[in-house]
Amino acid sequence: MKNNLKVARIQVDLTQQQLAEKTGVTRQTISLIEKGNYNPTLNLCLEICYAVNKTLDEVFWRGKE
After folding, report:
1. Helices within the chain (DSSP H only)
2. CA pair distance 17, 22, nearest whole angstrom
């Protein structure tokens, strides 16, 4: 899954740790999502989107492979 999480997180001035605390995951999980090495659940995707004030399609999308 592709994402713009790092850009969205920086736009709202959140560190990885702050976003992790807001969404109930570890900072390492946020890092892995940003790198594209972890596919979060839909629920976590939505929690992240609420935290960064973006829509789901603004942050996450599936690449054609």
Report:
1. 5-11, 16-23, 27-35, 42-52, 56-59
2. 9
What is the residue whose two structure tokens read 């972890």?
38
Q: Are 52 and 27 in contact (CB under 8 A)?
A: no
Phi, psi (rounded to 5 degrees) for 53: 60, 45
Interval 15-55: pLDDT, tens = 999 999 999 999 999 999 999 999 999 999 999 999 999 99
Is 7 in contact with 62 (CB distance < 8 Å)? no
